[in-house]
Amino acid sequence: MSTFPLGLRLEGRRVVVVGGGHVATRRAFALLEAGADVHVVSPAVSDSLTSAIGRGSITWHERPYRTGDLDGAWLVQTATDVPPVDDLVAHDAEAGQIFCLKGGDPERATAWTPAVARVDDVTIAVSGGGDAGRASALRDAVATALQTGDLPLRHRTHARGLVALVGGGPGDPGLLTARGRRLLAEADVVVFDRLAPQSVLAELAPDVEVIDVGKQPDHHPIPQEQINALLVERAQQGKVVVRLKGGDPYVFGRGGEELLACREAGVEVEVVPGVTSAIAVAANAGIPVTHRGVARGFSVITGHEELGELPRRGDHTLVMLMGVKRLRSTAEELIAAGHDPHTPAAVIERGFAPDQRTTIATLGTIADAAAHAKAPAITVIGDVVSLAAATTGSAAAPPTS
């Protein structure tokens, strides 16, 4: 039987659900979400429907169905599991020129509900030819492909373009969020950092403009002000611009500066958080930044600022980003401020790369033990470092005299 696919606007319109069981409950809530004026006709209803009825969200006619209950309805769903009742509802709907969703009997229905998923502003509706399982499987496959970017949606309409500040995670492309991948698949321009997961750039369409604005330690070839201007300029050309950054844009990533620059220029901005290396790289080395009975809190710092005000207890973990070059002076400052030099410490280089390396020592010896460490690296100081040996088998580096 041929059908005509159609979307319905049901907001404020009367829709009748006949039945109070599992199918009727699911359909009533779906109709309620669409804004319909939902009326349930049934002698008994499920607990879920009872709650919604108690809140006044759904009107309940506590009795069996009778002819006339469809007066004024735009749509009816019947799902009583009593064939004579469902047949009567379908008959009355036909007589009243009302479309009827007939639970368990699609051949005698005049309307069918597809398997539906929503990904951002896209609605996916799949009809499986009466096979609900097949429709659900197809829907899930399409939704997943949209979420991951495997099925890209290019050239969305934005009056003044869009800038998406996307956190790329700690380096492993598998840790880039599904939303981040989706935006990359839609991008006209990708502006990326040195620590962003650059392997995903190979997946971009050939016409996507790719701009490297990566910074090296103590060497910023493209100043932040120019990066801000670049994002605004491309977006004002009506383009979708993805600013792909390592870790999370708001953890020492200058995401806030870029957000303000775009908003001051009237450019639409979306922020997509990323997995921050401050937590993920430590975890990958077997060091949780908090652990019951060992550490109750943590601070994330850059290693470039005054350190004397930080908590001095071993049960408060310190995670330093971008500070490996001045590790010796940092350790000395912490010890001078009252930190115990015997506090466990670790330097983790090239997090999530195949050659990731972890050096474990103490606050007093870590500078010598990791003298040859190179960025990118994070430093973790606190009692939780002692857990690395139990979780990964890592051994502490011997003290250097």
Automatic annotation (TrEMBL):
One of its GO terms (biological process) is cobalamin biosynthetic process. It catalyses: precorrin-2 + NAD(+) = sirohydrochlorin + NADH + 2 H(+). Keywords: Cobalamin biosynthesis, Lyase, Methyltransferase, Multifunctional enzyme, NAD, Oxidoreductase, Porphyrin biosynthesis, S-adenosyl-L-methionine, Transferase. The keyword RNA-binding does not apply. InterPro entries: 4pyrrol_Mease (IPR000878), 4pyrrol_Methylase_sf (IPR035996), 4pyrrole_Mease_sub1 (IPR014777), 4pyrrole_Mease_sub2 (IPR014776), CobA/CysG_C (IPR006366), NAD(P)-bd_dom_sf (IPR036291), Siro_Cobalamin_biosynth (IPR050161), Sirohaem_synth (IPR012409). NCBIfam families: cobA_cysG_Cterm, cysG_Nterm, PRK06136.1. This is Uroporphyrin-III C-methyltransferase/precorrin-2 dehydrogenase/sirohydrochlorin ferrochelatase. The gene is cobA.
